[in-house]
Amino acid sequence: MYVFRSISDLQQDLRAGHVTCVELVQQHVMAIKNASHLNCVLETFETSALASAQRIDENIKNGKAGQLAGTIIGLKDTLCYAGHKVSAGSKILHNFESLYSATAVQRLLDADAIIIARLNCDEFAMGSSNENSAFGPVKHPLDPKRVPGGSSGGSAAAVAAGICHAALGTDTGGSIRQPAAFTGTIGLKPTYGRISRNGLIAYASSFDQIGPITKTIEDAALLFEIMSGKDAADSTTATEPVPHISKSLNDKKTPRKIGYITECVEADGIDPEVQAAVKSQLHALQAAGHDIIPISFPYLDYLVPVYYVLTTAEASSNLARFSGMHYGYRSSEAKDLEQLYKQSRSQGFGKEVKRRIMLGTFILSAGYYEAYYNKGQKVRRLVQDMTLAYFKSLDAIITPTTPGTAFEFGKNSADPIKMYLEDIFTVQANITGVPAISVPCDTHSNGMPIGIQVMCDRFNERVLFEIASQIKIPQKP
Ligand code: GLN
């Protein structure tokens, strides 16, 4: 099997004729079959992938190949790809086929990427462990007793297991970064508004962003560049120019002011080995000439509550469209219209999604709206103001990505609050809209990867990638 190193190396190998796109597709179809025990692939798009591969091989011969020629990409099952099924990890979208491709997906296709499969995820991207998928949990490639993280667990596991070169995930509160941290891959949540959400099945629209999960920082930067930018189909996309980062990652590094949140790095309840790994990276960055500055973020305890108040409210509204009427699953037992709605939704949605729809409906209901939704919006503003104020004097903020490493199946599933606390370090970036990346920074004594998170000011992905590229896993004797 072709040994993938990076997308730019792949371009050279394809041009030199060391491998062809058709061979790559055949090899990955086989790799997907061999990794079926991980349950990360819901469907392999073999026919369309092979057809694209043949076309791109021709383009390569004619010197007309796009920047991503032959890059084998997996899509989280929340992203539309025209003519292919998409189900958001849910029974309610049973047999639904996308009528158009998400803008981000189309931009990859236009650059000659090959979409190989759709990947398992928590239902409607709600979860931190992939235990909430209607199609069964995804297993961690290094230890099948453990979760790969969620909700983009299938995407992270697929990249870690080498069954695609890169994958797309979506991140509403950490769903790209947390599984990336758990599986030793790189996961980017761009600035809110960088990448169009057109064609992404919405969970919480003011939080959702699409982003890449990759093996290298350079690949993450390249995919980011290609997918980013204004899109008429999503009015929240920004006109801000998209920086070209992937080619300049090896340039001389500027000394930066990097803050670390003491409450995250020093608090009890965080795995001591995760703490030690993050501290040792901070020392290494200091030794490399950066200013490392401890900062306090007293609102840390409010982040998870405000995230769950606001996202469940948005989810209850977004998920109202799944009625059993127009598409997807429809209960066959209903006798009248009301029963049809009720039964289709009761049977079509899973437990966690129902919990969130009910919570969100309660939060938005007359009499509670002021106390929960409005209060939540106010706290969101406080968190935004404080975070953005820090970026007036700091270039970046560092935290662990997660309080611990990949946990065992069942460990958090009986207690939703415990599961929600998994998101404590990742939700800040979604609440404020800033970009954040998780990079592997060490291995725990339990054998699991540890991730470190870098956050930067809005639209400052250039510095985000520059700092992320300086994080190196320490060599152990
Ligand atoms: N774990 C978080 C949740 O369940 C994050 C999900 C996400 O980012 N999609 O809401």
Describe this structure in words.
The chain is α/β, with parallel strands linked by helices and 477 residues long. It has a single domain (1-477), classed as Amidase signature (AS) enzymes (Alpha-Beta Complex), CATH 3.90.1300. Helices cover 38% and strands 13% of the residues. It has 16 helices and eleven strands. An eleven-stranded mixed β-sheet has the order 1-3-2-4-6-5-10-11-9-7-8, with helices on both faces. Strand 2 (72-76), helix 4 and strand 3 form a beta-alpha-beta unit. Helix 2 runs antiparallel to helix 3 (46-61) and helix 5 (153-160) runs parallel beside helix 6 (177-183). The longest helix has 25 residues, at 369-393. The chain is globular and about 65 Å long. It starts with 6 loop residues before the first helix and ends in a 9-residue tail after the last helix. The mean pLDDT is 96. Bound molecules: glutamine. Glutamine is lined by residues 125-128, 151, 171-175, 203, 311, 423.
Under CATH, the topology is which?
Amidase signature (AS) enzymes
**Number of beta-strand segments:** 11
Low-confidence stretches: none
What is the SS-derived class?
Answer: alpha/beta
Strand content is 5-15%
- For the termini, the CA-CA separation is 31 Å
Q: Based on CA inertia axes, which overall geometry fits?
A: globular
Strand order of the largest sheet: 1-3-2-4-6-5-10-11-9-7-8
The first-level CATH class is given as Alpha Beta
- State the order of secondary-structure elements, H for helix, E for strand: HHEHEHEHEHEEHEHHEHHHHEHHEEH
**What ligands are attached or bound here?**
glutamine
Q: What's the architecture in CATH terms?
A: Alpha-Beta Complex
CATH level-four homologous superfamily name:
Amidase signature (AS) domain
Rg from Cα: 21 Å
Helix content class = 25-40%
Count of separate DSSP helical elements: 16
Rounded mean pLDDT is: 96
- Number of separate structural domains: 1
Please describe the biggest sheet, giving its number of strands, its sense, and whether it closes into a barrel.
11 strands, mixed
